[in-house]
Write a structure and sequence with these properties.
The chain has 200 residues and is of the alpha+beta class. Helix content is 20%, strand content 33%.
């Protein structure tokens, strides 16, 4: 039985061949690593920076989230850099550790929450991974079966949080957010991840 149910929706800026926005949902030995990131700018160089970050995260998925961001920062210095938000779900202890650098929004909907009542919002710290890294501090939250994490890059308007529902299927929720809240002038990505299992 899968431990998470995921939905992803993307928008590529017209005229570009690929998006600089990327995501990752990766099972590791200790839990699940979830990330959404945005390569700085548009086009191939942005996509290369984002793809480089995804590769680093995959290869080191068992590392703590602060270490992962620091590792990406060191290895992406020769690129445009990325902004990113990431979360690690510790399935055994029912905890989620999350961290954001830049402007990839993160919200957590609790299971059974009323529409529009987001209980947890990720604190974002200004900076660019690969260029200018702020002081890093991760937050740790208890997480339960049915809780839903949403990451959205800056091609999505912040008002998307007002219409969230913890009862909507993740793929449908991602598609709806993209359709209703895409700015249309930037790459955009929405990642919706619901915890449907608790133990590894």
């Amino acid at each position: 039985m899968p431990l998470v149910d995921c939905g992803v929706a993307k928008f590529v800026l017209p005229g570009e061949h690929e998006s600089g926005d990327r995501h990752l949902v990766c099972r590791s030995g200790k839990g699940i690593l979830i990330a959404a990131l945005d390569g700085i700018g548009h086009g191939e160089e942005a996509a290369n920076a984002a793809e480089g970050a995804i590769s680093i995260l995959k290869e080191n998925a068992d590392e703590p989230v602060i270490s992962l961001v620091e590792l990406c920062h060191e290895k992406l210095r020769s690129t445009r850099g990325v902004v990113m938000s990431l979360a690690f779900i510790d399935l055994e202890h029912g905890l989620m550790t999350w961290l954001g650098v830049g402007n990839v929004q993160g919200v957590l909907m609790r299971a059974g929450a009323q529409k529009g009542s987001v209980q947890e919002v990720l604190l974002l710290r200004g900076g660019v991974v690969g260029s200018q890294l702020p002081a890093l501090q991760a937050a740790v939250l208890p997480i339960e079966k049915g809780d839903t994490l949403v990451f959205a890059t800056d091609g999505i308007r912040v008002e998307f949080v007002e219409g969230l529902s913890s009862r909507e299927a993740p793929q449908r929720a991602a598609d709806k957010i993209l359709k209703q809240h895409s700015r249309g002038n930037d790459d955009a990505l929405v990642l919706v991840v619901r915890l449907i299992g608790v133990r590894a």
